[in-house]
């Protein structure tokens, strides 16, 4: 689907969607348990993949109004009847691959072309260290994967600079093993706030996990039981970043965008508030009410290290294309291993809109003072975050911007274009 965004002015109130990261973890945590309700979940293509995996392992997931009723497999996943299709969800693949290592038999995990290009080798190696079977069918550390066990716990050594999701996967599975799992990090952990999210969710489900001098540890023999049998998913700051950026680059004169659902949590991507502030946006966050207000501002370039916040890179780049001066995004090589190479993708597509961009392996510089955005036809690269960031840039580009692949927002923010329409943008869709 092609989506066309005209240069626009926006204003009004809009609610951020529930967090994708928390929803993934909550669904699987409920699956590891007996019975639990996950309230206010994000229902998207990615989280539906995690629901399918829980059901493949022997659980059930019933959808209600703003809730999921999950009957889990109580720490003992069954051998799936069929291949588990993780679609385009890298998070699903990694967290359920570790779950597959608990099965007394074999599981096969695969997904779409993009997912089958993403690195899984360190997680496969970790499962092997625990005595499980874990192989890439093509021998390249990428899906399709064949995994089995059952592993009983132990100590693993893994790199921390490829994906924090390996740590999340092992912590979640380790809690229901007999001996628990200790994780020793061979390198500095990238995207560390995502592990903080995992530990927060585990705690809310009554599971203990901790940081150690070497990395992380989770004792075995634990049970997943949220207090009162219910877990509520917070708002998603990754998705919120596009709405806040829209306000900063395109709010109507004398007006603002107010984003609801912005309550404090362990999400590293809440750093978007600090980033916008550093660029000169007069942003206000009422944490008690869970509301962030941002008017249009004359933005200035900034320097951002995205080692812990890789999902913000496309948003920051779009902001940099509108700002004065240079916006430099550092420590970003790991952002190349997402749904697409997001560093290359956002650099190339913003260039089509008239942005001046310099791309290095671990660094992206957007030269706002040398950029003059004009509407063009751009490609979302099949990546939800690239699509939404280009839409933000389109709000400030002269003329109309047409984005190929607009349907991919369904991965994390199915109502994104409807949210823009509620703020006053005339969104045109065509097949």
From TrEMBL:
It is found in: Cytoplasm. The active site is at residue 311. 3-phosphoshikimate binds at residues 20-21, 25, 163-165, 191, 311, 338. Pathway: Metabolic intermediate biosynthesis; chorismate biosynthesis; chorismate from D-erythrose 4-phosphate and phosphoenolpyruvate: step 6/7. GO terms for biological process: amino acid biosynthetic process; aromatic amino acid family biosynthetic process; chorismate biosynthetic process. Keywords: Amino-acid biosynthesis, Aromatic amino acid biosynthesis, Cytoplasm, Transferase. Transmembrane segments: none annotated. Residues 7-420 form the Enolpyruvate transferase domain. Belongs to the EPSP synthase family. Catalyzes the transfer of the enolpyruvyl moiety of phosphoenolpyruvate (PEP) to the 5-hydroxyl of shikimate-3-phosphate (S3P) to produce enolpyruvyl shikimate-3-phosphate and inorganic phosphate. Monomer. This is 3-phosphoshikimate 1-carboxyvinyltransferase. The lineage of its organism: Archaea, Methanobacteriati, Methanobacteriota, Stenosarchaea group, Halobacteria.
């Amino acid at each position: 689907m092609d989506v066309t965004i005209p240069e626009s002015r926006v204003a009004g109130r809009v609610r951020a969607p529930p967090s994708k990261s928390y929803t993934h973890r909550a669904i699987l945590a409920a699956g590891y348990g007996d019975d639990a309700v996950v309230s206010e979940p994000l229902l998207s293509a990615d989280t539906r993949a995690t629901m399918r995996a829980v059901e493949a392992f022997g659980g059930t997931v019933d959808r209600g109004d703003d809730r999921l009723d999950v009957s889990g497999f109580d720490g003992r996943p069954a051998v799936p009847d069929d291949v588990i299709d993780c679609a385009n969800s890298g998070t699903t693949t990694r967290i359920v691959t570790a779950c597959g290592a608990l099965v007394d038999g074999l599981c096969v995990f695969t997904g779409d072309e993009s997912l089958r290009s993403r690195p899984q080798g360190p997680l496969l190696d970790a499962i092997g260290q625990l005595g499980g079977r874990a192989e890439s069918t093509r021998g390249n550390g990428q899906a399709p994967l064949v995994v089995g066990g059952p592993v009983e716990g132990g100590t693993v050594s893994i790199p921390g600079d490829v994906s924090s999701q390996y740590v999340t996967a092992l912590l979640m599975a380790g809690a229901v093993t007999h001996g628990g799992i200790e994780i020793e990090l061979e390198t500095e952990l990238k995207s560390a706030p995502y592990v903080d999210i995992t530990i927060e969710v585990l705690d809310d489900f009554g599971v203990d996990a901790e940081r150690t001098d070497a990395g992380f540890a989770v004792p075995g023999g634990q049970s997943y039981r949220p207090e009162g049998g219910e877990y509520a998913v917070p708002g998603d700051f990754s998705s919120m970043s596009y709405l806040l950026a829209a306000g900063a680059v395109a709010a109507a004169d004398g007006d603002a965008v107010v984003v609801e659902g912005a309550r404090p949590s362990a999400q590293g991507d809440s750093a978007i508030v600090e980033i916008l502030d550093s660029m000169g946006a007069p942003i206000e966050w009422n944490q008690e009410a869970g509301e962030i207000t941002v008017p249009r501002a004359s933005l200035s370039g900034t320097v951002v290290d995205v080692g812990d916040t890789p999902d913000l890179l496309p948003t920051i780049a779009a902001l940099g294309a509108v700002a004065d001066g240079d916006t430099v995004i550092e420590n970003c090589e790991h952002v190349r291993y997402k749904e697409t190479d997001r560093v290359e993708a956002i650099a190339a597509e913003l260039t089509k809109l008239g942005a001046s961009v310099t791309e290095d392996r671990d660094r992206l510089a957007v030269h706002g003072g040398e950029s003059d955005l004009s509407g063009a036809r751009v490609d979302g690269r099949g990546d939800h975050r690239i699509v939404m960031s280009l839409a933000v840039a389109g709000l400030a580009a002269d003329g109309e911007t047409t984005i190929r692949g607009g349907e991919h927002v369904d991965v994390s923010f199915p109502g994104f274009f409807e949210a823009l329409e509620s703020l006053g943008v005339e969104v045109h869709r065509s097949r």
